[in-house]
Design brief:
Layout lengths: L6 E6 L6 H8 L2 H4 L3 E6 L3 H10 L4 E5 L2 H7 L8 E10 L1 E6 H10 L4 H13 L6 E4 L5 H12 L9 E4 L5 H6 L5 E5 L4 H5 L3 E6 H4 L4 E8 H6 L1 H20 L1 H8 L9 H9 L9 E2 L1
Parallel strand pairs: 1-2, 1-3, 6-7, 6-8
Antiparallel strand pairs: 3-10, 4-10, 4-11, 5-8, 5-9
Helix pairs in contact: 1-12, 5-6, 6-7, 13-14
Length: 285
């Protein structure tokens, strides 16, 4: 059967795990199945959510819990969604500011328990709770940060303040002192280390190995009206994801381009190849 639509606009947030969409366009996987695709770089997950919901985007890379949250009406917009495929497993890091890291190192081994000791010291001095960021309320990042902290005895409802910051803005917030740390998808964790602004305390591989991270999603209405087009998109993305795992050095060069991640190629090599202390299977496509 013929596709219902061949010209599509798909959204992504500048992260390494947007790779299957980037590769599908740049290496011709979309073209091979007869699709002409424009990729739209979006600033935040809220932007992705809203634009897919109103039809400004045909589909998008999404946080794994986001389609469920949209379907259930847990987010700002209630829209039935379909997540056709997983884009990757893992890929997140928890990064802490240098000043906090040094205090933790003095308190105990650098872990969530060490952070707990610092928090208790601040409480004794009457200081306000430290602020930490995740990328969206319904996200693997929020769950991972809470799991890591709670394993060290930290009450994430009372001992700290959690806020939402778009992934590409995390480093700026950390540098300005607006947050003490964050959980984010790569490369925005290891890049802060590269810039001398922080230290990685934990990775998603250590907190919850094999966990679903991003999906490709469309609205239920869009999927019902474009079944052949939807199948073609998924076919292209599956081929692109396979290419990503087999060509990681070239993948870093594609993602580094200004209209995608706009980051140094060698900064993307660390999370993709397992360098600079990161696990080799931090990101699995």
């Amino acid at each position: 059967m013929a596709m219902e639509k061949t010209r599509l606009k798909l959204g992504l947030v500048p992260l390494i795990d947007a790779a299957p969409l980037v590769v599908a366009k740049e290496r011709g996987f979309f073209a091979e199945v007869g699709l002409e695709v424009e990729l739209s770089r979006e600033a935040s997950w809220a932007s992705i959510r809203d634009k897919v919901a109103v039809g400004a985007l045909d589909g998008a890379q999404m946080l794994a819990p986001l389609p469920l949250a949209m379907t259930l009406g847990l987010s700002a917009i209630r829209v039935p969604m379909v997540a056709g495929m997983a884009l990757n497993l893992g890929g997140n890091t928890i990064t802490l500011a240098n000043a906090l890291w040094e205090r933790m190192d003095h308190a105990a081994p650098s872990s969530a328990a060490a952070l707990k000791a610092v928090i208790e010291a601040d409480k004794a001095l009457g200081l306000p709770p430290m602020t930490f960021a995740t990328v969206y309320p319904f996200s693997p990042h929020a769950a991972e940060l809470r799991l890591w902290m709670e394993a060290g005895g930290i009450d994430t409802e009372r001992d700290v303040r959690l806020v939402v910051v778009p992934p590409p803005q995390m480093i700026a917030y950390l540098s300005a002192g607006n947050i003490s740390g964050y959980c984010v998808g790569e490369p925005w964790g290891s890049l802060a280390v590269r810039l001398g602004l922080g230290h990685i305390a934990a990775t998603s591989r250590e907190i919850f190995a094999g966990r679903l991270e991003k999906v490709f999603a469309v609205t239920r209405d869009w999927a019902d009206r474009h079944p052949e087009t939807h199948a073609a998109v998924l076919e292209a993305l599956i081929g692109a994801a396979r290419w990503c795992d087999e060509n990681r050095c070239e993948l870093a060069e594609l993602l580094a381009q200004p209209h995608y991640l706009n980051a140094p190629v060698d900064a993307l090599m660390a999370p993709l190849l397992g360098e600079a202390g990161l696990p080799k299977d931090l990101v699995v496509f």
